[in-house]
Amino acid sequence: MKLQFNKTYIVLTILLFITEVLIAIFVKTGFIRHTFGDYLVVILMYCFFKSFIKGNPFYIALSVLIFSFAVELSQLANVLKLLNLENSYIAKLILGSTFQFSDLVAYTLGIVTVIIVELKLIKSCIL
Fold first, then answer.
1. Mind telling me which residue stretches traverse the membrane in this protein (predicted)?
2. Does residue 57 contact residue 115 with C-beta atoms inside 8 Å?
C-alpha cells in the first residue's frame, strides 16, 4: 500500500459527496434518505481512500466496512451523549443518532457493490 493521487477516484468522491449533500438537504424521509444515502456513503468513503491510497481494493473496502460498522454500533452506546454532542446537528449528521440494523445492511451492500465493480475493472485490465 502506498500513497498515490488518483484523479478518477477524486472525481467520484466529489460527485458522491455532492449527491450526499443534496440528499441531506432536500430529502428528509424515506428510502433515499435512510437507506440509499447509507449505501452511497460507504462508496464515497472507499473512493476517498482510493483517491490517495494505491492498495488492495478488498482490504480498503473491508476497512471502510469495519469503520462504518463501528460508527453505527457506537450509536448503541449513545456516543453523542457521552461526548456531549447530542445537540450538534453536524455530529448527528456525521455519526448518526440512532442505531438501525438496516444501515448495516446498506453498508454491506455498498461495499459488495464496490468489490464487484473493482473485480470487473481488474478483470478487464488483465484480459
1. 9-26, 32-49, 58-77, 104-122
2. yes
Please state, in angstroms and as integers, the Cα–Cα distance from residue 116 to each residue in 32, 75, 93, 101, 122, following that order: 22, 29, 28, 23, 10
6-24 pLDDT per residue, tens: 999 999 999 999 999 999 8
Listing DSSP states for 55-119 in one string gives S-HHHHHHHHHHHHHHHHHHTTTTHHHHTT-TT-HHHHHHH-SS--HHHHHHHHHHHHHHHHHHH
Q: Report residue 41 as a C-alpha cell.
A: 456513503
Other beta carbons within 10 Å of 90: 8
Nine cell digits for residue 113: 457493490
